[in-house]
Each structure stands twice: as C-alpha cells, then as structure tokens.
Design goal:
The chain is α/β, with parallel strands linked by helices. It has 2 domains: 197 residues, 3-Layer(aba) Sandwich (Rossmann fold); 134 residues, 3-Layer(aba) Sandwich (Rossmann fold). It is 35% helix and 20% strand. The protein has 10 helices and 15 strands. Bound molecules: 6-O-phosphono-beta-D-fructofuranose.
Length: 367
C-alpha cells in the first residue's frame, strides 16, 4: 500500500503500561493529523478494543497536553491475546479460551483501518505478528520498563523506571544504615535484569542479583557478613523478581491464564530475607517496589525517545513501510520486522560491560 491509499489509522497501546505511552500517542497522532490529514482512531484497552470493537476518533485536543502524563489515555490490557481470549470463566475462575482472531479482522475491516500503530512489548508484538498473517498492517513501537525487546537497545519507559527504582533504593539506604540491617529491594523486569542492574549500579547497591546470573545463597550471605566485619553495618541487595538460586526455580506470584505471558513473578526478596536472617543472624527486610515502577510522569529522556519513536512510526506509515518495529541501535533510529521480535526476550549478557563494572566496584553478583 502506498501513502496515497491511507485514509485512516488506528493506535493501540498493549501490555503493561509504562511512562511515555502518551508521549508516543501524541507524537504519532499529531504528525499524522497535521502533516497528512488522515483520520486517527484510538483503540481502547489494547487488543481488547479490537476484539470488542471499541474505538474512538481522536482529534488534536485529545492528544494535546498529554506529553507529561503517565499511563495511557487509550487504556491497555495484558490479557487480550486474540488467539487465546477468555470468552468466559468457569465457576472456579478458570478461563475458557477461544481464538477470536476473525472478530478482530472483521472489526478492522468494518472500521476501515488502513494500518495500526501498535505500541507494546514482546507479548503485544507477538499478537501483532499473528494478525499480520491475516492481512492487518502494523507499525510497531517498542515499549517496556523491562527493556527486554530484541533488536532495540532501549525501549521508552525504561529510563523512568530506572530513576524510580534508584530513588527507592536511595531511600532504603538511609533506613538500612540507621537500623544496621540487610535491606532487599525487589524490582520488576520478568526474566531480564536490565532494570535491577541499572538501578543497582546507580544507587551503589552492595549485591545485585539478576535472572541471567543464578545466585549462590552462601555467597550472598558471605557478602553481608563480610560487610559487617568491615564495620559496614548494613547491606543493600537489589534483586530482580526473576532472580533464582543456582539449580533452583524462580518465585511465581500468580498465573494469569488468559495473558500472552501467563507467569507473574514476585516474592523472591521475601524468600531471600528469611534465609539471610536465618543463616547470618543479621536482621533483614524485603521491599517489593511493584507497580510503582510503571507509574508516574516520564522523565525527559523518555519523553524525547517516545517522541522520536512516534515520529519514526509516522514516517514509516508515510512510506508504506508496514509490519516493522521502530528500533534504536548504536544511537540511530532504525526498524526491523515485527516477526523478528515476537516471542523473544533480550537478556543481559553475563559479560555485559555493566556486569563487569559492578564486579570491578566490588559489588557481589551472587555467583
Ligand atoms: O512487563 C512489564 C511488567 O511490569 C513486568 O516487569 C512484570 O513482571 C509484569 O509486567 C507485571 O504484570 P502485571 O501488571 O500483570 O502484574
């Protein structure tokens, strides 16, 4: 399809929310409306809006004054995979899953959407990749505080989450020092340790535990004891929700059966805290940062990145470059096929320069 054939586009935000979504919506919608005069339709609550046919026409006023707002004005859902949609629930809460792809295809045709800008992480891109097979045209924009999307060095939302987690770690630092405790701060990130690694380094954590480097509990305890012997009467441990002991399992908080990625991790900090107190007799406390990391206003860097991503997506629509994801590589905005990032995760390489930096600074990685 060429530029001249486009009349109407949709915008969808999918998966977990994160700071900067509104900045992207604004950038895409304003550019398209002002430069091209195409209609822009907001799809409500991610793929749920396409399944239920819930869309609304966006005007300039709808996308003005939202740059600094957290969350997404369109709403989102991380449970609306069209190939596994919960059409109803059994009495015990088990979802009855059905493939409702044909409904989505029907609604896109009925609304005459020529292309959809899909803003999301790997789960959302996997859903989009499936729909590309059914003839729906997408341009993808990478979002997630986990920073775990393949083919892009950075996703918007990540830098704000790093700052939020760093602020929390700084606050924990003072209370750890006053009470001479081991304080364990658990961060999100699923199976990727980017958020914990960055916030851990930024806040000067003493121990950083990430999913990519399984930890040895004895080594973690040794690090705490060594610090108290050196007269440092407290230890800060930054731990990813996906961290696990060598030969052990991740701690699962819950299973969301109708989600593209059903496993929700959480609770490893509490397990660690109990074990460390038991083995070292040093008092310990766990703090799970949780959804605080996804909330709030985007930092300036995320607003800029989100705006650049939005403009890149608008350029791709203009050129008729569909089914590709905007990426950021070596300081340049680029793009790659959405299919290449579907169902994949970009993990921290064990020899990443930040891992080596942490080791050089005497930080324990628990191995
Ligand atoms: O992918 C973003 C993320 O916040 C992960 O870091 C976390 O594991 C998950 O989503 C939490 O999902 P939910 O909002 O469904 O609890």
């Amino acid at each position: 399809m060429s530029k001249s054939e486009i009349k109407r586009i949709g915008i969808l935000t999918g998966g977990g929310d994160c700071p900067g979504l509104n900045a992207v919506i604004r950038a895409v919608a304003k550019t398209i409306m002002l430069d091209e005069g195409w209609e822009v339709w907001g799809i409500e609550d991610g793929f749920l809006g396409l399944i239920r046919n819930r869309l609304r026409r966006l005007e300039i006023e709808d996308v003005s004054n939202i740059l600094q707002l957290g969350g997404t004005v369109l709403g989102t859902s991380n449970k609306a995979d069209p190939t596994r949609f919960a059409v109803r629930y059994e009495d015990d809460g088990t979802p009855v899953l059905q493939d409702v792809t044909s409904r989505v295809v029907e609604h896109v045709a009925e609304r005459a959407l020529d292309a959809i800008v899909v803003i999301g992480g790997d789960g959302t891109m996997s859903c989009a990749a499936g729909l590309i097979e059914h003839g729906i045209r997408f341009v993808g924009i990478p979002k997630t505080i986990d920073n775990d999307l393949m083919q892009t060095e950075i996703t918007f939302g990540f830098m704000t989450a790093v700052q939020t987690a760093t602020d929390a770690l700084d606050r924990i630092h003072t209370t750890a020092s006053s009470h001479h405790r081991v304080m364990i701060v658990e961060m999100m990130g699923r199976n990727a340790g980017w958020l914990t690694l960055h916030a851990g380094i930024a806040s000067g954590a003493d121990v950083i535990l990430i999913p990519e480097i399984p930890f040895d509990l004895d080594k973690v305890c040794d690090a705490c004891v060594r610090r108290s012997k050196r007269g440092k009467a407290f230890t800060i441990i930054a731990v990813s929700e996906g961290a696990k002991p060598i030969g052990g399992e991740q701690v699962v908080d819950r299973v969301v059966h109708d989600s593209p990625d059903p496993i929700r991790l959480g609770g490893v900090s509490e397990v660690l805290s109990a074990e460390i107190s038991k083995r070292t007799h040093i008092e310990s406390r766990a703090t799970i940062l949780g959804h605080i990391q996804r909330g709030g206003t985007p930092c300036a860097a995320d607003r800029v990145l989100a705006t650049e991503f939005g403009l890149a997506a608008a350029r791709m629509l203009r050129k008729g470059k569909f089914d590709r994801l905007v990426t950021y590589e070596n300081g340049l905005i680029n793009d790659c096929p959405i299919a290449e990032v579907a169902n994949q995760q970009r993990l921290v390489p064990p020899k990443h320069r930040l891992i080596m930096a942490a080791r050089s600074l005497g930080v324990s990685l628990g191995d």
